[in-house]
Amino acid sequence: MPILELAPAKINLYLHVEKKLNNGMHSIDSLITFSDCADQVFVSPQKNITLDRYGPMSANLPSVQDDYVYKAAQKLAILTKNKLGAKIIVEKNLPVASGLGGGTADAAAVIRALGKLWRVDICDDLKRNLAQDLGSDLYVCLESKPSRVRGIGDDLLSLKVPHNLSAVLVNPLETLLTAEVFSVFRKNVQINQSVDIPGSWSDDSYEFIRQIKKLRNDLTDPAISLCPIISEVLFKLNSSDGCMLERLSGSGATCFGLFADHESAENAAETIKSNNLDWWVTTTKLNSKHV
Description:
The chain is of the alpha+beta class. The protein is built from nine helices and ten strands. It has two domains: 3-158, Ribosomal Protein S5, domain 2 (2-Layer Sandwich); 165-286, Alpha-Beta Plaits, CATH 3.30.70.890. It has helices spanning 68-79, 102-118, 124-134, 138-143, 178-188, 205-213, 220-226, 229-238, 262-275, and strands spanning 3-20, 26-44, 49-54, 86-91, 147-151, 155-158, 165-171, 243-248, 255-259, 280-286. The strands form two sheets. Strands 1, 2, 3, 4, 5 and 6 form a six-stranded mixed sheet that branches. Strands 8-9-7-10 form a four-stranded antiparallel sheet, with helices on both faces.
């Protein structure tokens, strides 16, 4: 039987951009959690490494050679001197370049799956080498657990936060590249260092959302300048009954709304979808266990 690994959507509940580093990157401070909305990655033994993709969002993927999943498999084989192959199949359900970490989450899933298939220990040194090519989100996507992420993404602190938060994810199916959003940020945004992060997070969903609401996503305005429809998405979430917080996730065009209960989330998603048939809209639970 093929080995199955889920690649859940990554949600930045807040994202503060901090000082610019010598390599041109910025350090960040973010609380990242994961959705039960996910891509699926299957691996099974074969002589060579191959990749097939299908699913509702597969048409928007890059070529196989440029796909993070294929790059991750090839890089893992090189770094571990592994001569075995694998048949890799990805069911692509998440929008591409959407702020949900989809490509990196898929790469993390294939690394976990190949670790089992090839009996490879995905140690810290291996993670660092893989992240050099696949991006710093790889660290948290490999864990797929609620985490406070700092530095360039390599400083992770696992957190206990409320489970099964009800949310609506909305993407107008506009592509936003992280590099472009950060380019606008560097030109137009003054870094805000006055941040009061809670020392602990409430177990109560309502209080937890109130804590998150005091924080922000520093990439929101740069993203809106490149993709103005994000403002409309945020407005429609904010106008939905029961929405306690609406915010952009990461640097993509996906926005999320946190709701008081799942019925309110489902009603909001149905209304938004019925009035915007060309948008990607889904209800989900956050902080469900995946790995």
